[in-house]
From TrEMBL:
One GO-annotated biological process of the protein: mRNA splicing, via spliceosome
UniProt entry keywords in alphabetical sequence: Nucleus
Chief location category: nucleus
GO terms for cellular component: spliceosomal complex
Family: Belongs to the BUD31 (G10) family.
Protein name: Putative G10 protein
Record's subcellular location: Nucleus
The keyword Nucleus belongs to this UniProt entry's keyword annotation: yes
KW Coiled coil (keyword) present: no
Organism lineage: Eukaryota, Fungi, Fungi incertae sedis, Zoopagomycota, Kickxellomycotina
Domain of life: Eukaryota
Length: 147
């Protein structure tokens, strides 16, 4: 007779109790942003709020682990495994020049018209005076590390 597989979920690592309320708040904000109506917005603007919340949640986990050293490696890996944070985005934040990166789409040259990085990656000092720039992908107004 074959073995019956039962779901054995491990309990979360220690320290989860301290960060769980904040992650639940981010989850609620994400639900609200997903259910928000897109009337009166451009087609690209409808996803900007979701991208901002995703960035904030990943930045929260990044700050806890790398900057404040408030959580353990086990809890950090648990959060990445459960998709509370974007591991690829965090890996880019750790590299020089990408400390303020808003999303991964902004550095992919295949997503732009001219095969370069997004306009939000250009330092504000190199842009025209008084010109406001918004990224088409996420609505960012500048994530160059030199700003």
């Amino acid at each position: 007779m074959p073995k019956i597989k039962t779901s054995r979920t491990k309990p979360p690592p220690s320290g989860w109790d301290e960060i769980e309320p904040t992650l639940l708040e981010f989850e609620q904000k994400m639900r609200d942003a997903e259910n928000e109506t897109s009337t009166g917005k451009r087609r690209v603007e409808s996803t900007w709020s979701v991208m901002r919340i995703h960035h904030q949640r990943s930045r929260y986990i990044y700050d806890l682990f790398y900057i404040r050293k408030a959580i353990s490696r086990k809890l950090y890996d648990y959060c990445l495994k459960r998709n509370y944070a974007d591991g690829n985005l965090i890996a880019k934040w750790r590299k020089q020049g990408f400390e303020k990166l808003c999303c991964l789409q902004c550095i992919q040259p295949r997503d732009t018209n001219y095969g370069t990085a997004c306009i939000c990656r250009v330092p504000k000092a190199k842009l025209e005076e008084g010109r406001t720039v918004e990224c088409v992908h996420c609505g960012c107004r500048g994530c160059a590390s030199s700003d």
